[in-house]
TrEMBL record:
InterPro entries in the cross-refs: CB, DNA_brk_join_enz, Integrase-like_cat_sf, Integrase_catalytic, Integrase_recombinase_N, Integrase_SAM-like_N, Tyrosine_recombinase_XerCD
One of the Pfam families matching this protein, by short name: Phage_int_SAM_1
Name of the protein in its database record: Site-specific recombinase XerD
Boundaries of every Core-binding (CB) domain copy: 8-90
Every Tyr recombinase domain range: 129-333
Keywords: DNA integration, DNA recombination, DNA-binding
GO molecular function: DNA binding
Superkingdom to which the source organism belongs: Archaea
Any single biological process term in GO: DNA recombination
Length: 338
């Protein structure tokens, strides 16, 4: 990795940052820099925000997403990598000179508040079990009934989030090219085996399998409904939009939020330090519902880790609390009377 070459980087700014640090940090740290900056740049691109215009809320939402997916130690490490990148941008590129927009003194760049909030505050304030905010089956049905327009597309996205446990970015990164109708394959989707290869930001992907109840609307979307979208002919993505070749993760979040509000089941989990409301019903809550359902039905933790694409099994182990819950219900339901 210390022999940094441009072809390993999707973003020029990430390449320049790593080149500037290749003789200052250990190889493992440099690899961490590359991965963290790549993830952050993809995160803000998905939100439609330019790097030079980010503010504290953009870093906040990125760290929030990491708290949901990674262990406490990994989150701290990745955050420190991001802090180094931000300081470098200010020193070398002249970004963020307005301290109101993005304060970067040591007090504001402290990770502890995010860890505390992610592992304690959410758990204390949410109507959830030990911080796992998840959608129940009945709530999912209400969301389907109340999706905003375009209804067919948005209901399909909901089904994919619920049935496959996808992250919102994984939904928006799904591709249908190359198209091979003779093999019944469209990019990441293989209808022959009812299999989807989920894109991974680090390259490669993981395999998931879907039922016919998802295959039917998915096929209809690809073969007919999708063609009515303005950018469909120019786009390689499963979900183009009327404004661009690719639907943004932010739009997925907005759609789920609107469906929850329409259904009358949305609520605020907490208000962060910047005064932003954190909603209970989100794409990630649907993903949590997938994990909870698996554990309740007996899926072992290693298999669930692979299905959900968790890099750290300690994240998956948060769901084990629901295995105890399921055993307790079974005992009360099936134990002989005395």
């Amino acid at each position: 990795m210390k022999n940094v070459t441009r072809d390993k980087f999707d973003h020029k700014i990430n390449y320049e940052f790593c080149v500037a640090h290749r003789n200052k940090v250990e190889e493992g740290t440099l690899t961490g820099y590359r991965w963290t900056v790549k993830s952050f740049l993809e995160h803000i691109e998905g939100e439609g925000v330019d790097l030079e215009n980010i503010d504290w809320t953009d870093i906040d939402s990125f760290i929030d997403s990491m708290v949901e997916e990674y262990s406490q130690s990994t989150t701290k490490t990745r955050y420190n990598h991001l802090r180094s990148f931000i300081k470098w941008l200010r020193a070398r590129k002249g970004y963020y000179t307005d301290s109101e927009q993005l304060p970067i003194d040591s007090r504001h760049l402290e990770i502890k508040e995010y860890i505390d909030r992610g592992e304690t505050k959410k758990g204390n304030e949410a109507s959830s079990k030990e911080g796992v905010v998840f959608v129940e089956a009945g709530e999912y049905e209400l969301l389907k009934e109340n999706v905003p327009a375009p209804k067919f597309r948005n209901e399909l996205i909901l089904k994919m989030l619920w049935h496959l446990g996808l992250r919102r970015m994984e939904v928006t990164e799904m591709q249908i090219t190359p198209e091979m109708p003779h093999k019944d394959e469209y990019g990441n989707i293989d209808f022959g085996d009812n299999e989807i290869t989920v894109p991974d930001v680090k390259g490669g992907g993981r395999e998931l399998w879907f039922r016919d109840s998802l295959a039917a609307p998915l096929r209809r979307w690809i073969e007919s409904e999708r063609q009515a979208v303005y950018y469909a002919d120019e786009s390689q993505y499963l979900f183009p939009s009327r404004n661009s070749e690719q639907l943004t993760p932010k739009r997925v979040t907005s759609m789920v939020d609107q469906a929850a509000q329409n259904a009358g089941i949305q609520s605020t989990v907490y208000v962060d330090a910047n005064g932003n409301e954190r909603r209970r019903i989100t794409p990630h809550a649907l993903r949590h519902g997938y994990g909870v359902r698996h554990v309740r039905n007996g899926t072992d933790v290693r298999t669930l880790q692979q299905l959900m694409g968790h890099h750290d099994i300690s994240v998956t182990q948060h769901y084990l609390q629901f295995k105890t819950e399921a055993r307790k219900r079974a005992q009360h339901r099936n134990a002989p009377e005395v």
